[in-house]
Write a structure and sequence with these properties.
The chain has 2 domains: 301 residues, Rossmann fold (3-Layer(aba) Sandwich); 43 residues, no CATH class. The strands form 2 sheets. A 6-stranded mixed sheet has the order 4-3-5-6-11-10, sandwiched between helices. By secondary structure, it is α/β, with parallel strands linked by helices. It contains 17 helices and 11 strands. Helix 7 runs parallel beside helix 8.
Length: 375
């Protein structure tokens, strides 16, 4: 298929892999930020095709995974309320809270619905003026414009029965938090292409300069990831630390200006708690004062709810690139996609689900293997 097969071409992959092997002379630890990139890496066996000196670790790039447990519990309380229609994308319905998930609330009689856009939830509020319609607004900068548009539209129409439960997080502050940690292992970043599609890549420049780490904006197809790794390794080997844009067919330096303007109009930056990591200053979004009548935490008075993370789940260490999923004692035993302890196992972008789904020891994924990759 044109515009897709060209980014999965085995011959091109082998040439890029040969160059990666040629330029790599030292051990390097590279973190891919996005969970979609993690799944692509493991699904295609990319981690097994690289030189043994290169270690890929998996960052906090799955918005479902980093949504804190207490935010899930707030959603459960709201969804079980009387006269409430609770809406969400499907990936949040099986994420476990302290005692249950949204699917269980639905089975117990809660009106929980899957929607394909936050504007679908606005339409429900318009059609059901006697109901309180809530949308679970989870995500990075990528989904923020859509959620901002939903709030802006509801506010313009005077739909006081519409609100969103905000769990938006921002990527650059999380990258800085990892780099400034005494436990940090990351030497180079593959930045999430879809985030940069919205926000551009200018805000990564001071991070690369301050921490002396190369940051390469990278797409999600096998060719994208291999090229991103190659560009990162070349910088590491040369001792440079700049921002490069591998995903230039999509990402522009300034990003999507109208989308950024809308985010800035509806949201304001706030501190935000990340599941398994803790609170990171100025790493999230909350509704600006003008739109706080649409803030579900205020509407349903659940802001004070606090919950401790389960000790047996090491997702926080996985999300910080400190451990791999198979190093967890619960992995594929008490924690499976059917019985998840944390979001990293149930999310379609979670690192634990990627390791569970794909046999990363195989060198034959997607036809990318080469008998000469170990030369």
């Amino acid at each position: 298929m044109k515009y897709l097969d060209e980014y999965r071409n085995p011959e091109i992959a082998r040439r890029i892999l040969d160059e990666i092997h040629h330029v790599t002379t030292k051990p390097w630890v590279i973190m891919e930020i996005c969970g979609g990139q993690t799944h692509s890496i493991l699904k295609n066996g990319i981690d097994q095709l690289l030189p043994e000196q290169i270690e890929l670790v998996h960052g906090p790039g799955c918005p479902v995974c980093v949504t804190p447990l207490e935010q899930i519990d707030k959603a459960l309380v709201i969804a079980a309320g009387e006269d409430v229609i609770f809406t969400s994308f499907g990936d949040m319905l099986r994420v476990p809270g302290s005692e249950k998930d949204l699917l269980m609330v639905k089975s117990e009689g809660g009106d929980v619905r899957i929607v394909y856009s936050p504007l679908d939830a606005v339409a429900l509020a318009r059609k059901n003026p006697d109901k309180k319609v809530v949308f679970f607004a989870v995500g990075f900068e990528t989904t923020a414009p859509n959620n901002a548009m939903a709030v802006w539209q509801a506010h313009r129409e005077g739909l006081k029965n519409f609100s969103i439960l905000v769990s938006h997080v921002l990527v650059p502050p999380a990258m800085e938090a990892l780099l400034s940690s005494t436990r940090n292992r990351v030497q180079g970043y593959l930045a999430a292409g879809h985030v940069c599609t919205v926000m551009g890549w200018e805000e990564y420049i001071p991070i690369a300069e301050r921490y002396k780490v190369p940051i390469v904006v990278t797409g999600f197809e096998p060719m994208d990831i291999l090229e991103g790794i190659l560009l990162t390794v070349k910088q590491l080997e040369n001792g440079t630390a700049t921002v490069e844009n591998q995903y230039s067919r999509i990402v522009q330096r300034e990003g999507n200006r109208p989308a950024r303007d809308l985010i800035g109009k509806v949201f304001q930056i706030s501190d935000r708690k990340w599941r398994g990591i803790g609170e990171i200053p100025a790493s999230g979004l909350t509704l600006a004062p003008k739109y706080q009548e649409h803030d579900a935490e205020i509407v349903f008075d659940v802001s004070a709810l606090k919950v401790d993370e389960p000790a047996e789940c090491i997702s926080g260490e996985v999300l910080q690139g400190l451990k791999k999923p198979f190093e967890c004692a619960a992995f594929d035993t008490t924690c499976t996609p059917q019985t998840p302890l944390g979001a990293t196992m149930v999310s379609t972008e979670g690192a634990c689900s990627a390791y569970y789904l794909y046999d990363s020891t195989s060198l034959k994924k997607a036809g990318l293997a080469s008998q000469e990759t170990n030369k």
